[in-house]
Amino acid sequence: MSVDQSVGNCSVYLLHPDEYEKYLNGTSLDDMDALLEIRHSGRGRYEVVTTEQIELYLVFVNHISDTAMVSYYYVYVPNSYFVTLSLGFLGVFIVIFGTAWYFTGRKRYFMLGLSVNLALFLIRIFTLATYSLGLPEVFEELIHVELYNDYQFFYLSWVPSLWEGVWPYSEAMAVYLYPPLWIYTVGALGSTPSWLPGLILFGFNAATGYLVYEISFKLTRDVKRSIFVMLLYLLNPFTLFYGSFMWLNPTPYVFFSMLAFLLALREQDSLSLAALAVATLYKQFAVVFFPILIILLIRKSSPGVRRSLLLFLRYTLVYGGIVFLASVPFLIATPETFLGRMFPFVLALDRLTTFIPDLWMTVHLNTFFLWLWGSSWFTDAIAVLLVNYVFLILSGLIVYGTYAVTRIQDHESDEPAAIRGRLLVHALMWSFVAVMCVQLFYPRGAYKFYLLALAPLSALLFDYRDLTYSKVESFVFQRRYLFPMIISWAILLCYRFVYFWILGIWTLFYLWKSGNLSRIRRALIRIVKPTLSDEDAVSVYEMIYASED
């Protein structure tokens, strides 16, 4: 049971029926013998062993008028539950792990990667009876993997409410901030047993490994390389901890975002936009891929200006139409609440100028400086730029602008499939940068588990010496190929107030190695082109459109 209130003026009492009867008759709660009492914000746990039906009452008291929230979770566990569950899980793991050796090639390695993720999934089920994630305190005290109980604290209260007919964008789900498709998919199987919603999230997480393999194989036709890419994703710490162990919310949108790129590679343009629209209906962050995907689809068709505009309108209608049609019921029923939760643009400036060390608080660009110095003119200035989306808008203009004006050089001998492949790799690289920019510059801040979207992208871009796939040869393992895995572990374990620096360095490193850092510089030069002489302007223009691939 947990109660959350920023001011702290709220209390929760768990009462026996006799005590509850006294409460109804006017006895003060302070004079009662409560089974469990939580004053102010915090968490508590009550356990009881019984052989018959019991009746308990939960009383929540909000001492002020501000909105407060309480969440509770209960489970009935028979005596033989853990023994039976352990034997069952062990059997499932042995069957899947053993079955892998009856397969060959990608199927074998997918099953092996799946078995590792499944082991974490099964272990997680044991922790559902409490708010503990079952890991030693060192994971919270000395290292910061940011383990969250969102599944128990939120998801397991939303799903039963949904089945009882509660509207997702109502006060009964006051903290539900995701698009509508998420809750209806995750809650499709109900919440009994309590791991069923987690099974759906886990399924999306594991299935993304298959998509990553398909994208890599479509690009290179190299089975060994594609198997390695798939394992890099399945064994990535973000995949293991945030997708398979904690069952957090990004897994469906990451799956459909990768599906969109795979469909684009397969020349299924409309389905590609539809997949991205579905991804957006799971999590709003998927919209950052839309400009990249739409430019990719237009470029690979090599149309003229008029045809490009028509394609842009067509693709925008496909994407926007699906998102809009799926949102219509909610726009009609509760438009203000729905739009307010989907697009929370109004932010409190004081939240960006106050250092809050609690784990529930997001980390933003200003957090590191507030941690070091506290409030000052410098942190105030950063906060103002953040709250007005200046950093995010500028990074968006640079990323999408540079991506749009950079041309990939084609050779006469190139087949259409090879051209599409280079264009897709280029799009994946800029998608990687776009995800990083959202993580770094999103005004509301971010959690580490948002980086689950990086797991498939970093797997596909594992070789920092050939981020453009221009020198793909027969796959032979090199130690540098583990770079994404190593840096992902460093981010996962890094102190949560400084890991942004690793993200920034990683982004600049990839931009440099891919040649895009110089492209950004040239794009910025183009902005001041009117101030240059005609001769210099022509020179700059040629530099921008010159390909280094």
Could you describe the 3D structure shown?
- The protein is mostly helical and 549 residues long.
- The chain folds into 2 domains: 2-71, no CATH class; 129-345 and 389-514, no CATH class.
- 57% of the residues lie in helices and 4% in strands.
- It contains 24 helices and 6 strands.
- It has helices at 17-24, 81-99, 105-126, 138-141, 150-163, 180-186, 196-220, 223-234, 237-245, 251-265, 269-280, 290-299, 305-333, 335-342, 349-352, 367-373, 377-387, 390-405, 416-441, 454-460, 483-493, 499-513, 516-527, 534-545; strands at residues 2-4, 10-15, 36-39, 42-43, 57-62, 69-71.
- The strands form 2 sheets. It has a 3-stranded antiparallel beta sheet with strand order 4-1-6, with helices on one face.
- Helix 7 (196-220) runs parallel beside helix 10 (251-265).
- The protein is globular, with a radius of gyration of 26 Å.
Average pLDDT level: 83
Portion of residues in helices?
55-70%
Q: Write the H/E string, N to C.
A: EEHEEEEHHHHHHHHHHHHHHHHHHHHHHH
CA radius of gyration: 26 Å
How far apart the termini lie comes to 56 Å
Order of strands across the widest beta sheet?
A: 4-1-6
Count of separate structural domains: 2
Largest sheet, strands/sense/barrel? 3 strands, antiparallel
The total strand number stands at 6
> Which regions have little confidence, pLDDT < 50, spanning 5+ residues?
none
Overall, the morphology is globular
